[in-house]
Amino acid sequence: MGGDDAPEMVVAGLDLAAERHPGGRFLLVGDEARLTPLLAKYKRARAASTVRHAAESVTGDMKPTVALRMRDSSMRLAIDAVANGEASGVVSAGNTGALLALAKIVVKTLPGIDRPAMAATVPSARGDVVMLDLGANVVCDTRNLVEFAVMGEMFARTVLGIPEPRIGLLNVGSEELKGDERLRRAADVLRSSHIGERFHGFVEGHDIAAGTTDVIVTDGFTGNVALKTGEGALKLMGGLLRQVFTSSLSAKIAYLFARTGLDRLREWLDPRRYNGAVMVGLNGVVVKSHGGTDALGFAHAVDVAMNMVEHGFTAGIADGLRKLAEQEKLAALAEPDADALALTGEPPLAEAK
Amino acid sequence: MGGDDAPEMVVAGLDLAAERHPGGRFLLVGDEARLTPLLAKYKRARAASTVRHAAESVTGDMKPTVALRMRDSSMRLAIDAVANGEASGVVSAGNTGALLALAKIVVKTLPGIDRPAMAATVPSARGDVVMLDLGANVVCDTRNLVEFAVMGEMFARTVLGIPEPRIGLLNVGSEELKGDERLRRAADVLRSSHIGERFHGFVEGHDIAAGTTDVIVTDGFTGNVALKTGEGALKLMGGLLRQVFTSSLSAKIAYLFARTGLDRLREWLDPRRYNGAVMVGLNGVVVKSHGGTDALGFAHAVDVAMNMVEHGFTAGIADGLRKLAEQEKLAALAEPDADALALTGEPPLAEAK
Q: Is the four-CA dihedral B169, B291, A179, A323 of positive or negative sign?
């Protein structure tokens, strides 16, 4: 029921996803009265799914604390299905803060994980790059950053299929002395962990699009700003190119000649192709679709969830964390910072503690 | 003497700048034995400048603490000339940390300013936008952010010529509850300050390129990452476009048809056009050119400095700060955070205290 054009966008997206994943079965949770007529329209979605009625739904502007108290929201019932093993994963285009809060409480974090993070892929000159945290934790300590690196590495291995992913820690300079103590300590821990040589060290903002590393690790504030800044810059460029190719007859002719390449470029950079942020560090697959996306974008978020389930992402992360714990690296770190905020800057979760 | 291709790049840039600013007089500080033959080659630079010999120079990898102890470096003598009123401003393509440290100690900060910041313009869909801090302060408190807003407003007024600049505070969401306490308090102070309605509130990463506000205020860590992420995304797009237009004969023909528009776009986004970060909050004009730029880029950094001098930027900021102090807004804020780092993640300055 979440997202700007829900529930139709979701059902239409599911229709596309059902075609791409012939063996997939979907549990569609929401207002049955609204879903039934939509399923009559989207045949493949209907054939692949079961509807579970939910009397209420979490709204976009609802505080996570309020959403946590709702026992019968569509979001809650969908997450419950993951927690009780009925579903392998959940995809939602709804309220991010509520989804993260519910997932943490119902699906729970993996043993040893202090805080889950949001991860997604972004385009780079050398192929897709995983970036995390994208906003689940506004403030992060050394331990969080180290855990993000372990989870990001597993994301790159399982979802992007990179056997030896290289990991970079986002900083204001690549020199070892740059940045704050928290970053320097995280770098030290990673260098001596099982990640070892795959830890590239510090990277800077321009390294994201350059694809210097396969994984970019940062706190949720910086990651959120970087993700949106990069998207904004690409969007600006896209808009300017549109202007160029419609500004004159000669430019319109040019577009016809360069169409194949330009269309491929647009397709490759299409934000819908990067839709689907994964909440990593949970004991199950939880994917957040952008609320403003369309059916194609939502189908991509479903692809991401299917990928993670099929490649044993959750078990892989648990394994990486076990290795880290064995090396007793985490034990050497300070306790998590009690002042650090959880969730995307949502004070409500702090209240809920 | 600073920059990858110095001193020739600097002299060649000065040659261009001398043509653009016929009344300008330049004090060229550096190794006379290297500058003299260059000035024989660049006639306009020679006609407009006086050479001051400096026996030594600050290197790119030198710690600010070491640079601070050098009394006769070209950087020090150039900054001395600003402090003693001989020059109206200084432009350097050298070591950023050293330049900021020297400028703070020699030129000094304006009365009431806790920390100077680095500001520069970036491209947006609605024209150039001022962003600060770009890395002078890795950690910032509420007071710093408020001061940055006042200085950014003056930058937009005097350098970009925007009579009523709109100011945004970079955050992970535009809702009032997002972000940390530090950001929420800065927003409260700005809303009730003389900036008042020109304070737009929180903006997100995508608002930078969208040009939602004329000024983007953020801490030095986030600003540095955002600046470089945006630059990286534009560079990626530029590289991909080059590939598109060289990939086939048909695409090469297309380039010829669209050349005017594409060249204009490239020119507009040319990083050299945005070269010249201003160290705002100092009692004089201090501009940092990118070390890797060429003559055209360096000339632009000189343009920025000339602009600031001609438009009374320093006096304008002092006036804005006085207004803020009169409203006793700053007094209501907590004392500066003693743990906050000065300079671009350079611990040496902390040692120097």
A: positive
> Residue B240 pLDDT more than 60?
yes
Q: What integer pLDDT is reported at residue A247 of this predicted model?
A: 85
What's residue B348's pLDDT? 30
**Residue A176: pLDDT band with limits 50, 70, 90:** low
Q: Which of A72, A58, A143, A130 is nearest to A101 (CA)?
A: A58
B320 touches B146 (CB < 8 A)? no
Burial of A92 (0-12, 13-18, 19+ CB in 10 A): buried
Cα–Cα distances (Å) from A53 to A94, B132, B287, in that order, read 17, 50, 63
B66 touches chain A (CB under 8 A): no
Q: How far apart are CA B200 and CA B169, in angstroms?
A: 8
Interface check A346 vs B, CB under 8 A: yes
Residue B223's nearest CA partner among B170, B285, B153 is B170
Banded model confidence at residue A336, pLDDT cuts 50, 70, 90: very low
DSSP B292: T
pLDDT exceeds 90 at position A204: yes
Q: Indicate the angle between helix axes B142-158 and B313-326, nearest 10 degrees.
A: 140
- Domain A8-352's class? alpha beta
Q: Is the per-residue pLDDT at A7 higher than 50?
A: yes
Which candidate from A227, A239, A260 shows the least CB-CB separation from B125? A239
Please say if the pLDDT value at position A325 is more than 90: no
Check residue A248 and give its pLDDT. Answer: 86
Element (H, E) at B36: helix B32-41
- DSSP secondary structure of B4-30: TTTTHHHHHHHHHHHHH-TT--EEEEE
Partner-chain contact A237 B232, CB within 8 Å: no
pLDDT at residue number A340: 39
Beta carbons of B244 and A261 less than 8 angstroms apart: yes
> Which pLDDT score, from 0 to 100, does residue A347 have?
31
ipTM: 0.87
Extents of the domains making up chain B: 8-352
The yes-or-no verdict on residue A91 having pLDDT over 60 is yes
Structure tokens at B59: 């290197």
Q: Which residues on A lie below 8 Å from B123 (Cβ)?
A: 236
pLDDT (tens digit per residue) in B83-112: 999 999 999 999 999 999 999 999 999 988
Euclidean distance between CA atoms A41 and A22, whole angstroms: 19
The rounded distance, in Å, linking the Cα atoms of B94 and B70 is 15
Whether pLDDT at B336 is above 60:
no
Chain B residue numbers with beta carbons less than 8 Å from the beta carbon of A138 are 172, 179-180
| Helix, coil or strand: residue B110 | coil
Tokens of A83: 């927690």
List the 214-243 stretch of A: residues with Cβ below 8 A of B.
218, 220-222, 224-237, 239-241, 243
Two structure tokens written together for A77: 């019932």
Residues of A in Cβ contact (< 8 Å) with B264: 244
Report phi then psi at B86, rounded to 5.
Answer: -70, -35
Cα distance from N-terminal residue to C-terminal residue, chain A: 27
State yes or no: pLDDT of A222 exceeds 80.
Answer: yes
pLDDT of B227 > 90? The answer is yes
Nearest to B240 among A171, A208, A265 (CB): A265
